[in-house]
Amino acid sequence: MGYKVAVVGATGNVGREMLQILAERNFPVREVVALASHRSAGSTISFGEKTTLKVQDLTKFDFTGTDIVLSSPGASVSKEFSPKAAAAGAIVIDNTSYWRMDPDVPLVVPEVNPQDLDWAHKKNIIANPNCSTIQMVVALKPLHDLARIKRVVVSTYQSVSGAGKEGMDELFTQTRGIYVNDAVERTKFTKQIAFNVIPHIDVFMEDGYTKEEWKMVVETKKILDPAIKVTATAVRVPVFIGHSEAVNIEFERPVTAEEARNALRKAPGISVVDHRADEGYVTPLESAGEDSVFISRIREDATIENGLNIWVVADNLRKGAALNAVQIAEELHRRGALAKKAA
User: Fold this and answer.
1) What whole-number distance in Å separates Cα of residue 178 and Cα of residue 170?
2) Total domains, the chain
3) Residues spanned by the domain of 167
4) Same domain, 43 and 176
5) Are residues 258 and 115 in the same domain?
6) Does one domain contain both 85 and 137?
7) Residue 268 is part of a domain; what is its CATH number?
8) Do residues 95 and 206 share a domain?
9) How far is residue 171's CA from residue 154's CA, in Å, rounded to a whole number?
């Protein structure tokens, strides 16, 4: 018993992570196909420790007989190929931004809203949220269950891997160049990223917010509760892997730091590391390669009624993208939604 799984965008940062996590978690597969653009076709990529896959050209692939598609190409590629895969009978778990706000496509974080998978059949496409949204709503869900959240103010500190391999290469090249007095060149980011921070992720919108900040607002409402008010400031920082967030939360009733800490400790997908001492918190460096959403610096905010501050850190390539997609596939399998396909 197993599924035929296709990974679209297999040669990218997230695609490689998807393949690794499928193998690590022993997802029931009978066949795995790696798909990418024609430029990558013919190259090889690892699946687990012993298996090597030959990358196939996405534009020439026939999805007939494919059970699950884990997709992480660009949004324009997803727009074209996710419906083709779905029409061929596959369930598509799409990591791009294209489908997230489609009213007929569930936007799912398994620890938060697995019930939304009940209507995945509408288009046979399930959307993976934005990386910064995922880790925030995992942290917010147990707190919202404890005492309803009215408002969230979040500042993100997002690693360059969120901008793909090109972002990681640019940070590395600029950092090395500065040490040897080379001219700083930039192609991926709007300003120098080495030894700097950039308060600009994605394009600017008419109201002055960036699209990355808008995503956090609308996705949180779709996933968790449309009544929650969210305002965000998204910042790119010179870190290779791991997004961090400073989150200020306003509740409908008073919540103590201890209440919040206990609720978070019991919640799935969360590790609380909150000691009021040197090294008693998690940084993005420690989150790299880990599956958990880490929460530290839990403290009450005396400047507003019913306020709380938390520090949230996660590996954006894992929980922020690839792991969440695989967890959706695991939840579909657990629910029996894929039973006929595995036969």
Assistant:
1) 12
2) 2
3) 132-315
4) no
5) no
6) no
7) 3.30.360.10
8) no
9) 25
Q: Tokens 């009215």 sit at which residue?
A: 150
Joined tokens for residue 120: 């995945």
Question: Residue 48: what pLDDT?
Answer: 87
Q: At 337, which amino acid appears? A: A
For residue 328, the Cα-to-chain-centroid distance in whole angstroms is 12
Residues in CB range of 176: below 8 A, 6 or more apart? 182
What is the CATH number for 27? 3.40.50.720
Phi, psi for residue 31 in degrees, rounded to 5 = -155, 140
Look at residue 339 in the predicted model and tell me its pLDDT.
65
Extract the tokens encoding 279: 């090294």
Instruction: Spell out where 167-237 has E strands.
Output: 229-236
Confirm if 158 and 238 have CB atoms less than 8 A apart: no
pLDDT tens digit string along 279-336?
Answer: 999 999 999 999 999 999 999 999 999 999 999 999 999 999 999 999 999 999 999 8
Burial class (CB in 10 A: 0-12, 13-18, 19+), 235: middle
In this structure, the answer to whether residues 152 and 201 fall within a common structural domain is yes
Catalytic positions, please? 131, 243
Residue 342 is predicted with a pLDDT of 57
Distance in angstroms (rounded) separating the CA atoms of residues 314 and 242: 5
Assess whether 37 and 138 both reside in one domain.
no
In a shared domain, residues 112 and 164: no
Residues 286 and 327 in one domain: no
Residue 302, classified by CB atoms within 10 Å of its CB into exposed (0-12), middle (13-18) or buried (19+), is exposed
What contacts 169, CB < 8 A, 6 or more positions away?
188
pLDDT tens digits for range 219-243: 999 999 999 999 999 999 999 999 9
**Which positions of the chain have pLDDT values less than 70?**
1, 339-343
Q: What's the farthest any 2 CA atoms get from each other in the chain?
A: 61
Q: Which residues contact 93 (CB under 8 A, 6 or more apart)?
A: 68, 69, 70, 71, 126, 128, 325, 328, 329
